[in-house]
């Protein structure tokens, strides 16, 4: 049981299992390189599509986005993806315009509450208003093949640029590992400690992780929410509704 320190009400984390499939997908989009970025990994360099320049982000940590998902099928099956893999329409993968390659994403269909996990291995979609392109299999599991698109929320479960063996190991960790929800991030240590103490006093394991970036330091407060991804997502959703609006799940 988890207690919200703000109002003392109880809520239960729902424990269940999610099968993670880490395979391959999607089409290859032609990309024009932008000068002055030769030191970056090729998939992290800025690129231009239809007169618009896209800048891949260096880290997927804490990434959340809401928008329209679409999907690809037969026309791109067997063709190369942006990271050099071969698109498998039956794999659980996706394309995103700026996330690091191999980022693992939780995709939630906000229209029917179904969820899947995919791995980013391509760039796209380049249609206005769309945030992610899914493989046929991924779209089928979200029940959007017939409709073509759906309103979704995507949440990063890992940073990118992992090898295939590392991805399989991470998938196993997501299935059996320890899950936390980040409930706050502060530049001031005292603020982080106050929030941590509220949860500790309510009986919940709560940690503070220091994150340094250039000349700044941030103190991230993580509360333990169980050993299954779906249960962690249930806890995150409840915490978000109870005032922790930027809460997101972390696998440790």
From TrEMBL:
It is an enzyme of class 4 (lyase). Its EC number is 4.2.2.-. It comes from the Bacteria. The chain crosses the membrane at residues 12-35. It holds the Pfam family DPBB_1. The keyword NAD does not apply. Gene3D superfamilies: RlpA-like domain, Sporulation related repeat. Keywords: Cell wall biogenesis/degradation, Lipoprotein, Lyase, Membrane, Signal, Transmembrane, Transmembrane helix. SUPFAM superfamilies: Barwin-like endoglucanases (SSF50685), Sporulation related repeat (SSF110997). The keyword Transmembrane helix applies. GO terms for molecular function: lytic endotransglycosylase activity; peptidoglycan binding. Residues 173-252 form the SPOR domain. One of its GO terms (biological process) is cell wall organization. Lytic transglycosylase with a strong preference for naked glycan strands that lack stem peptides. Belongs to the RlpA family. This is Probable endolytic peptidoglycan transglycosylase RlpA. It comes from Desulfofustis glycolicus DSM 9705. The gene is rlpA.
